[in-house]
């Protein structure tokens, strides 16, 4: 069965974006970008592949899930398919159906949709963001991969937006990758 992997950058205090949704303060150090391009190439937008030297983004994912807030910056730039190398699902109730065949807008229940998606054949599924969607889907997350950045911001969009519900995870590994960033991997 396919795994749902929540792979996301976060601050030490658990925020993935500023209150307004911006995340420029999490721009990776050059060493970090190089490491990520080598080990997680599928998680870069298609437009960045040439600049980062990513020829064919190989890896574990064939699908990406994102919320409306995560997808909107691409739309603002006129990009309807930010991860053209992956099958893309955008969870949004206020967006019309996509004209781009590589992007499907999902307005229904995210949990039911992901359970169905996980039962289909294919590679693992990358939950890209944001915090609200992660909160809705956290019970379905099989692996949590956090690019933990050495910054404290105080407030913003949380890693997981949900009601108080302690869930214990098991550490798989923690890898320092430069610039003070550590990739921390957990499983259920």
TrEMBL record:
Q: Which Pfam families match?
A: RibD_C (PF01872)
Q: Which domain of life is it from?
A: Bacteria
Bacterial bifunctional deaminase-reductase C-terminal domain location is: 3-182
Organism annotation? Micromonospora zingiberis
Query: Recorded GO terms, molecular function?
Result: 5-amino-6-(5-phosphoribosylamino)uracil reductase activity
Query: InterPro entries, alphabetically?
Result: DHFR-like_dom_sf, RibDG_C, Riboflavin_Biosynth_HTPR
Q: Name one GO biological process term.
A: riboflavin biosynthetic process
Could you tell me which SUPFAM superfamilies the record lists for this protein?
Dihydrofolate reductase-like
Q: What is this protein called?
A: Dihydrofolate reductase
